[in-house]
Amino acid sequence: MRRSVVRISAPGGGYDPSGDRFWGSGFFVAPGWVLTCAHVVGNGGGGVLSGDTAIDVTDWRERTRPGRVALVLPLPADPADPPRRWELPDLALVEVAGADDAECLWLSDRSAVVPARISLHGWSRETGEPGLRFGVGTATGSDGSDGGAMLLRGEIPVAGCSGGPVVDVARGAVIGVSKGRGQGTAGLAVPVTALRRMANDRPGRERLHALVRAHDLHHLSRYRAVGTRGSWTGVQHALRPPGAGAFTPVLRTHLFARLAELTPPATPGEVMTLVDAVKRRVIQDPYQPGTEHDPRTWREGVGLLYDLRDTEGQGPGRDLELEAVLLYAARVAAAVSLAGRPEDEKPLKELSGWLTGREEPLQAVIREEIDQILHGGEDGPGEPSGPLAPEPRPGTVELRKTVHRKIVPDVPAVRARADVLVEIDPLLYGDSYPWRVKLLREDDLVTLRGDDRGVPRARLRETLLEPIAEAVRQGDVGEHLAAVEVVLPRELFDEPLDSWQLAQPCTAEDGTPLLDPDTLPLGERRVVVLRDRRRRDVPAIPEWRRRWGGAQRGPLTAVPLRREAPLRGHDGPGRESGRSAYGRLSDAEDTAVPVYCGPVSGGPGATAMEAALAAGHAVVIWRRCATGHTDCAEFHHRASRLVGEARTAAGLHRRIRSLRIRSGDPDDPDPDALWARSIALLFDSPDHPPLPEAPLHAPGVRPDPLS
């Protein structure tokens, strides 16, 4: 431990025996990389935080090297004036020159398992001169999945230990970074899973994966050099309880290094899709994922496959953990190979040979399944190796060399892991809208974030952006993107939800704007549809189900939402009454789609929308802008053609997304698509997710606390 923990000082402070310029602690997580707290390096101000000014990093041998801050989470609004109290996650990465030979600690591959017995380590001037200190205690509170801090009970970190490691002593892994003192007798630590925040944008994602790759390759190299006596693999081996499964720390070290060589996952959804599939296969009972996880690396998927048990909590007589991990690794290899990147070919062959050459006890059906996952797409039977190879004939001796076969998996039917359901409830108390963001999967619904107290309408966008971004990361799998379905009150139907951007636009070093898909408006990147909140409180009326079925079958036709709008415009005279609109829209074919050139959250547009929903229409197209256009006739003509070309409700998505891209180009909008600016789509299934079987009733009036 002491060989990995460093002290961090102001420039020139590393050689000062008095420690007057000592700031705090840190520790090596990969050769040349130190993890610490942002508030530790924040002592140096803007020059240090930007990486322009080097700091001193001193190791256990009193060797001082220059280090430059490469990443700060979060970066303060004014780096030249850092805050007194740093917001979570309060982490920083420092690149240390000439430290390629550093000994590194083992980062946990899973969220912290709390409560946990821990030790914490760091440098301190408590006795005068700087010296290494350690303490023991218990970590409680957050496991890192919610972005909160862990509470440390026992020996509280002393001044200077901030930035040092918090180690789970039962598992031999770093689970947190010491942040300092909390309230009362508690200390605070940041879970190492907070590093996932790095991967929320493309540059950070590449940095995180480079760090994890260097970390895992270092530990395999270290194990190969010194074995179990002087490596973290050996520490974990010594900590294993009697009767532990066959997935040993040695296997884990080898597997993580091989996974680290592969192209990393782009989203948590890519990892969780494979984890969910393996759990369903190994547990072999109806499996409903509980807590949603946020893995950003292939190794974290392995961390989610520990301690599998059957439904009665008893082991089924075989090593579920090893089966699950090897099946998962095979699925990772198959998923990466389907992308066809040349740089993955060699590491994939290495991983394939390692997987099929395992000598651990596995059921024959699991070995066959691994081979099928890896090589099921070959034109002819390959030549299996290792335990999959056929037995030699009796009386003969056959020497075999392990064959690293190219991975040729079957091409599975891949889709998004889940769609995103954003629920905004009607006003209950005051001017605040309660909200929830959920993952809408084929057979279940999982709430990720929410606020029953709600926020005012003006704050909906800023409040929902990060929860929606988190949800789409969980839902996206490769090129298969999660749709965003927004269930909201009718007075919010004209909110510009499709124009929200989940990430800020990025630029090149010379200031040139970069076209990054992650920064595009939601509706230009993925399917964005609206759904009606009011009619989800009661069982679906027959007309709704009938018209939804008609829209799915097609062929679609268009009908004006307001009868007079195509000729007189959205604000013209002779407005149709609500009852008249209801009768006309009720008589329309089940395949008819109401279209309208104006807004529907108020005025005559709202009256007509009420009529359409009462008549059971499940698909409606309109334009949410309120003023400034006189092309209603053109809109209705073009929308009618759009509906006819789509033929079915599902056919609308690609066409509407294309129109949003073409009409929303800030530099050169397509004149032929300008009619579709601010186009909105109601796409409201009565079946997914299921509606209640009985009506729901709103709570009563909130009692006056003063009465």
TrEMBL record:
Alphabetized InterPro entries for the sequence: Peptidase_S1_PA, VMAP_C
Chain spans, region Disordered: 374-393, 686-707
Gene3D superfamilies attached to this UniProt entry: 2.40.10.120
Protein name stated in the entry: vWA-MoxR associated protein C-terminal domain-containing protein
Pfam family of the protein (one): Trypsin_2
Signal peptide: none
Coiled coil regions, renumbered to chain: none
Location of the vWA-MoxR associated protein C-terminal domain: 431-686
